[in-house]
Amino acid sequence: MGRKEIHGNWKKVINNIKDLFDFREVLGSGSFSQVFLVKEKKTGNFYALKCVKKKLLHHSNLENEINVLRSIKHSNVIGLHDFYETRTHYYLVMELVSGGELFDRIIDRGMYTEKDASHVIRQVLEAVSYLHKNSIVHRDLKPENLLYHNPDEDAKIMISDFGLSKMSDHGVMSTRCGTPGYVAPEVLAQKPYNKAVDCWSIGVIAYILLCGYPPFYEDNETKLFSKIMKAEYAFHSPYWDEISESAKDFIRHMMEKNPKKRYTTEQALLHPWIIGETASTNDIYESVCEQIQRNFAQSRWRKAFNAATAVNHLKKLQLAHNDPPMSPTGDVPDIEVVDMCCPGPRDSHLDSNGNPHVSVPLSGEVSKGLCPLKPSHTEPMHALVVTETGKHAYQSEPQLDSAQSGKRGTNQIGQPLQTGICSVM
């Protein structure tokens, strides 16, 4: 099979990316790409540089991601600054965000109210409304793809990861894709769908932001998908007792089973809970954070290169403009990858560049009438961690095997913990 190329006169062809950028740190590594913190030599500006080997392009969604990012510009969407090509690689120069993930910020803030959740959802709605007006459907909205622009208390939310997004002028799609737990009923039912799938996902996110756990729990995807297709969710006591009826009404309209009756982004932006008229100011921090840590802790603690580390490193870089790049030669630095569950030297599971041969699993056993979802290959499958010696390594996200899957714990309301549901497939 020949190498797949990206065509366009907007590409900038260069010999060596290091003629333009100093490589500083590794921000993430996925199945088909690596992301680096880089400093542009000409301007001194910092960016996130996504590097993709051309020989892996036929496995990735890079071309689709580029086409989408080149066509949009919004204050709540991570932007594409530039695009370069060498003989062996493609490089996306992305806007750098340093404020950390949504859940981390909630846990760190100390106080949290419905009004805070409403403010987050309003920003997401404004960005998605912009996308929809430009005939773009994200198709993979979830908390992990919502990042804060900077560490400031009033930092804005940024939507990331457009690997599964779709430009659809006619508005109807059929590809089964997304992340279990956030995907809309019509996708699972193998029906043609439209931009309403994003609104469903926003409803799921709003639900989680108000209680700390997902609306759909099951210990296998067959049962999970069945519940989603029936829109079987509830506002459990005592976790929802203090949540306003307006918030619940908003969620019901967003998580409406019938996509024709489901709120559009325009309708959602006019809801009293989003406008701010009815969102409660009672502190729900303790209850929500306890549930977030119970249900999403594995995602949180696997990420050692968190927002605070990024900010501290950026400050150090600003004080040391003349320090040398991370690697003096080559297209991209070689990276040592180790499994933090079983630390040790590199083995046959790693390629010559120290990158793991990752096999991304599709959804598990599904019943008749359900089909596996197309996984998102764009989100890093390994998070940067700092070892005791101060060196960097990648921590693999272990997959639960069939024997382990039956041993999952439960949360306070007796639902099994769904660590796999909220992670990248």
Describe the structure in your own words.
The chain has 425 residues and is α+β, with helices and mostly antiparallel strands. The protein has a domain at 102-300: Transferase(Phosphotransferase), domain 1 (Orthogonal Bundle). The protein is 28% helix and 14% strand. Strands 1-5-6-4-3-2 form a 6-stranded mixed sheet, with helices on one face. It has a two-stranded antiparallel ribbon with strand order 7-10. Helix 5 (196-211) packs antiparallel against helix 7. The longest helix is centred in the N-terminal third of the chain and has 20 residues, at 114-133. It is globular and about 60 Å long. 40% of the residues are buried. The model is unreliable at 300-372, 374-409 and 415-425 (pLDDT under 50).
Structural class: alpha+beta
Instruction: Tell me the fraction of residues in β-strands, as a range.
Output: 5-15%
Spans of 5+ residues with little confidence (pLDDT < 50)? 300-372, 374-409, 415-425
CATH class of the domain at 102-300: Mainly Alpha
CATH topology of the domain at 102-300: Transferase(Phosphotransferase), domain 1
Biggest sheet layout: 6 strands, mixed
